Amino acid sequence: MALPAPAENQPYCTVSALEAGFIYLNHAMFIDNATSNEGHRTPSLSFLLQHSKNNKKWVFDLGIRKDWKNSPPSVVKWIENVYPSDVPQDVVDSLAKGGMSPLDIDVVCLSHCHWDHTGYTPPFAKSEFIVGGETSQLFEGGFWPQNPESFFPADLLPTERTKFLGENTNWEPVGPFPRAYNYYGDGSLYIIDAPGHLFGHINLLARTSADGAWIYLAGDTAHHWNLITGESVIACGHPGHLHGTAHQNKELAEEMIRRVGELRKLPRVKVIIAHDKPWYDENKAGRAFFPGHIDSL
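The line above is the sequence of Metallo-hydrolase/oxidoreductase; the predicted C-alpha cells follow.
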C-alpha cells in the first residue's frame, strides 16, 4: 500500500485551490444518516498544479460556469430545481488574482463531465484537455444544441486537443489504486482511474514535496467526508437521483471510497474532495488559494 519513495532531486507539484462557485447540496442525497433534508452551500473546488522542474501548469476541474443560465436547458433545469448554484468567482477570475490567464494553462484535466466540474472550457484555447476514457460514452446521444436534451454543450471538449485515457494508457498500480498513470514519468503526478461515480471519473495523486508528502484530489468519489471515514454509507432512493444513488455504479463507488480511506491512513497524505465544505470553511480566503498554495504535510 506504500506510495513510491522519492528519488534524488525528486520533482513535485505545488497545488493551489481555486474558487469555482458554490452548489447547494442536500446531505440526505449522499449519506444514509443525514440529520436534515436541508441544502448546504458547498464549494465546487478547482485546483492549479505547477510542476517544480518544468513549470507546467495544470488545472484540475473547472467548477461551475459563471453564466450557468447559458448552459444546455437540461443543465439549467437541474440547477433551478435540484442543485441551486452561485458563482461569485469562477476559475478564470481565480487565476487572474495570481496574474495568470487561461492561456497560461498547459493542461485542463476534468475529473468527470458533470456541469459543476466542467465550467466553461472555451477560454482555455491553448490547453490540452484530459478526461477518462469512458467519458466518450456520455456523448453517444450527441451534444447540445443538436440534441436539445443533452447535458453536454458542443464546445465542451476541443476535439483536436482532448486526450481520452483509455485502455491504451500505461496504467500501473500505485498505493491502494490498481490503475494509475504516471503522467510526467517522474513520480510527481499520477492520474487515478476512479470508477463508480460517472463514466470516465478520474482523480489526481500529486507529490507535494521532494521528501515524501502527497495530496489526493478525490473529485466526486465521495460527496461527504462521513463516507470516507466510515460513519455513513451511500444514500439510496432519494428523488433527486438519476441512478438510485449519487453514483452511476454504487458498488464501484463503494470500492473506490474504500481505497481512498486506505490511502488516507498513509503518512503525509492530504485528501480533499471536490465539494469539501469542512476544508473550505477552514481555508477560505487563506493562503491555500491561488496565488498562495496548500501547505505540504
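Note on the example: The first strand starts at residue 13 and ends at 18. The chain has a mean pLDDT of 96.
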